[in-house]
Specification:
Blueprint lengths: L9 H17 L2 H11 L3 H20 L2 H15 L3 H36 L7 H12 L2 H16 L4 H24 L4 H30 L7 H35 L1 H37 L3 H37 L3 H33 L3 H25 L4 H25 L12
Length: 442
């Protein structure tokens, strides 16, 4: 692939992607801060955080569609020059987020004991897990509102504000948790309340930002049923996409655990590194969501395709660089995670595949962003489901049936990502995603 030295889209890609990268890097700090603080309280509280935290990460991951769908819809209206409609789309995202957040909170509080039991928590780990989960669920409406607000800001081509809010929320989370856990001796409950307070504060900042836009554009604040319903339809398609992805991710861990203890430990090391690198590569995808939505809203499919091609070029370069860094850093990266010789050997082998995946991952992720920005959620849901059920599930079953190794499991993961690449590239080359106008009607 020939890469042009300069493109008219380079400046804008960097303007959107660099702050997005910062925000993506900061987001996982909520759980890391909680882990660091709770870890000093003892084994049982730390185990409780692990159980409750894994549930919350999965649940809130499902609701990421509130950010993605809002970004695409708002960007289209910005491109069409209708900022009032863009503000009303942001309001629709807020109403949907609050409604879903309240429902999630209520259902979560009711079923929290059953969820903790389902996660297999022991009698000593279950109480702190239940405490952390129940308190954290009180923040669900605010967490979901944060996602909708983040999507609105990105749709306005503003990733700088999302970075500032993310950094401020994490700094507050750290400070208030230290006070509550150690100053007031609240234990794991103090950690949970600290995170909830940070979510409330960030959500309120987004409400202020959206409120100012609504006032400036003279937009309606009341809920508009048709707009909310349209957002929910797209959201449902993105939930299917994310749900099948999470199925593959959790399925890979389940298969690794059945291969052996050292294998699942090595898989955890490799997967966490893979996930961290995915966050870095996803920054360009976020720029894609914002830019593609705006170009299509402005009835400019040629610029949309040109910008997408440039983002693919930059993402391939980033993937090659990251892959090379993984290869070079393997010998000292793995010892940071484990001292077990068997785990180290397995992880070193798998990291060759993690490195090889980076350029492929880069294209998959950026085309995810392009197609999400285009509002092509139905296709993405079908493509992800096909890759999961036609490639990953049979491949994982084959690894188990033939007593395969961890390396063979990661070969299956490579095939899964290759299937996603084929699906995304086919759609991109076909042009069916280039539906123009302020609202995508098909």
């Amino acid at each position: 692939m020939r890469v042009e030295r300069r493109s008219v889209h380079d400046r804008e890609i960097l303007r959107l992607a660099v702050p997005a990268l910062g925000a993506l890097a900061v987001e996982p700090l909520y759980i890391l801060v909680d882990t660091a603080i709770v870890g000093h309280l003892g084994t049982d509280p730390l185990g409780g955080l692990a159980v409750a935290g894994s549930v919350l990460v999965a649940v809130f991951g499902i609701f990421n569609f509130l950010a993605y769908s809002t970004t695409a819809a708002v960007a289209r209206r910005v491109g069409a020059g209708d900022r009032r409609a863009a503000a009303e789309q942001g309001i629709a995202g807020v109403w949907l987020a609050v409604a879903l957040g309240i429902a999630l909170m209520a259902l979560g509080l009711i079923f929290a004991p059953a969820i903790v039991d389902l996660m297999g928590a022991s009698s000593s780990v279950a109480p702190p897990a239940l405490t952390y989960l129940r308190i954290s669920l009180l923040g669900a409406p605010f967490m979901l509102l944060m996602l909708a607000g983040m999507g609105y800001a990105r749709g306005l081509q503003d990733t700088r504000s999302t970075l500032i809010i993310a950094v401020a929320a994490n700094v507050w989370n750290l400070l208030i948790e230290i006070v509550l856990v150690y100053g007031f001796d609240l234990g794991i409950a103090g950690s949970a309340w600290g995170t909830v307070s940070a979510q409330v504060g960030a959500a309120l900042v987004y409400v202020v930002l959206i409120g100012r836009s609504v006032q400036r554009e003279g937009a309606a604040v009341r809920p508009h049923a048709a707009t909310i319903r349209a957002a929910a339809v797209v959201g449902g398609q993105l939930v299917l996409r994310t749900g099948t992805l999470l199925l593959a991710i959790t399925g890979a861990t389940a298969v690794a655990s059945r291969i052996g203890d050292a294998d699942v430990a090595a898989h955890q090391v490799a997967f966490q590194l893979w996930w961290f690198l995915a966050l870095a590569l996803d920054a360009v995808a976020i720029a894609g969501q914002a830019m593609i939505g705006r170009f299509l809203g402005a009835d400019d499919p040629l610029q949309a395709r040109a910008a997408a091609r440039r983002m693919i070029e930059w993402s391939v370069i980033a993937g090659l660089v990251l892959g090379g860094l993984v290869v070079l850093a393997r010998p000292w990266l793995v010892p940071l995670f484990t001292e077990d010789p068997a785990v180290r050997t397995l992880a070193l082998d798998v990291l060759w595949l993690v490195a090889a995946l980076q350029p492929l991952n880069a294209v998959v992720f950026v085309l995810d962003g392009v197609l999400i920005g285009a509002g092509d959620a139905r296709y993405l849901a079908g493509a992800m489901a096909s890759a999961t059920f036609l490639v990953f599930v049979p491949g994982a079953a084959l690894v188990l049936g033939l007593d395969g190794t961890l390396v063979w499991l990661w070969v299956v993961i490579c095939l899964f990502m290759a299937a996603r690449l084929v699906g995304n590239v086919t759609r991109f080359l076909g042009g069916g995603w280039q539906v123009t106008g302020a609202v995508r009607h098909r």
